[in-house]
Amino acid sequence: MKRVVVISLTALLCVNANVLAEDANKSLNETKNVDGAVDSVKIASKDAITNAIEFKETQTVTIEDDVSIDEDIETNGKLWLDINKISFQEVKNNDRIIGKLDSLNNVICKMNISLNNHETVDSKFKQIRVANKTKLDKWKVIGLYSTAIVLNGIGDGLNNTHSKTMGHVFNAASIGVLLTTPFFIDYNKKKWYWYMLTYTSLRVSLFDITYNLTTKQPIEFIGSTAITDKMYKALDASYGVSKILSLAVGLTVPLKLL
Question: Can you give the pTM of this predicted structure?
Fold first, then answer.
């Protein structure tokens, strides 16, 4: 009985062992199949991803290359157009600036020319004014000296005709005219001798005639008291010629030598 039970248990254990072995093999096979499927799936997914990535990268590179070239061309074209516009505008602006500078230079040149002409005109007017002033001073010398000499001749004539009051007035006026000459004449002190010669010559030519007319004597009358009268008589010189020569000297010296 024990042997039967042992054999039965042994048989059952074998059957169970076989069943368990078969189940294990099945599970192992299934596991292998699953692992292979997974591996295949994994491999397939890797290839697909790689192909997809390669395809995408190729397309992306191609598209990016094409787009970058076109964009570069368009961008470069736009840049060149902008640069050309800017350079053209700069050229225009430079031309305008140069034109304005040229016009400004022309205006400055005209102003300089006008200023030079104005300075030239001013210098000419100044020269003319100086020349006129010099000429006027010369005639002032002649006029003032002649006026003083004539007043002195009248005063002496009045004194000798018993009109001493008026005679003194005229003599005082003669002295006053001589004293005021520095206020009207720009004397050149270096030429003092020409002023003296002018006064002497004019006095010789004008005083005697004025005196004779005041005293109602003939123009060619020669007295006996004055130094000039004694010289005329001693030299037996022509009265009229000496007066004319003295007048010529009295006019020539200031006009030519002063």
Answer: 0.55
